Structures are given as C-alpha cells and as structure tokens.
Amino acid sequence: MARVVNIHPESPQSRLLVQAAEFIRNGAIVALPTDSCYALGCHLGDKEALDRIRLIRQMDDRHHLTLMVRDLSEIAHFARVDNAQYRLLKAATPGSYTFILEGSKELPRRVMHPKRKTIGLRIPDHPVALALLEELGEPLLTTTLQLPGDEFALTEGWEIQDRLEDQLELILDGGPCGTEPTTIIDLTGSAPELIRAGRGSLAPFGLD
Which contiguous run of DSSP H or E holds residue 90? Predict the structure, then answer.
C-alpha cells in the first residue's frame, strides 16, 4: 500500500527527502512531481522495480526510459555527448525536456533501447525532484505517470493513490504540477529531431 507524503513544492522538507531516498534504495517505486507532470521513479540498479514500472505503464523494452539527473556532469557520465550536443544541453537545462542520447558503458543494458542503445536523459526544474536527486546522490530511472488508456498524466496525489495504491510504495504529493509532458528531442543524429512536442520550448533547437 502506497504511503502518501505531503511535501512542500518549493521548500521540500529534508526529513521527508531522507525517508524517500531510503525507500528508493530499498526497492520502492515513487511517484514524484516534476516541472512537467508527475513521474514514476525507481533506483537505476533495481531490475525488479523497473519491471514493475513497465507493467504499470504497459511498456515494452523499446519504450525509452528517462534517467533523471542533477546536472550536466551526470548527463555526460551516463551518455556519450559531443561538444555540439553539450552546448544544446547547456542552453536548455534545467527544464521540461527529455533528450535521447547514446548511453554510456555506465548504464545497465536493460535500461537502454535494445537496438539503438539509447536512453532519455533530463535535468528537471522542480525543487522536489532536484532535492530528491541531491539526497539520493545518484540518478533516478523515471517515466511519465500516464496510465494506459488515459489521455493525460495523473497530477493529483489523491488520484495517484486511488489508481495505484497497491502498486507503489511512496507518493510525494507536492500538489498539482500540470499534465503536459516533457518535450522530447533526439540528439543522436546530425541535427536535433523533435520526437514529442511538450512543455519545453522548441526555440533553443530551431524547431519552432
């Protein structure tokens, strides 16, 4: 049964972040607010939790997962990033973007696209998400909290509890944060390619 924690959306309480990080290290799936919409997250190295997230979302292994990180140095650690890509990332982060990049050897193969060896990476611009990442001290493997058949992502703590109470361990309820997902940009080609238009502006990539 999911534990619901009311967390301040702008000044998240440190004791709650400590507890949340411990939950995640012990195999929990957490629902957390971001600068786009709520996300489901788990520990990068936890295969069982990842399998459970895929089951909740009804995703196969060709659906890109997103590694949520604290800063650009972590992106460069988990993905192959050249100078041109780095400049684009620097101009657009933190923000409501997910970037498709080639994964590095630091990533478990199971979290990458099976054929392309790519993964989504993002630096959120939300106090709760960033503070949780800081407390955890490592990235969080995430996906949008949009359930099969739903038109929009879930954005109310009570609704997340009502729909997923028996499938999550923790809900960080920071209040509504919107239903528009991130803009997804593929940076693996010769030029940025728009995969999904979302909350993030297309202007930094010349795609508007």
Answer: helix 83-92
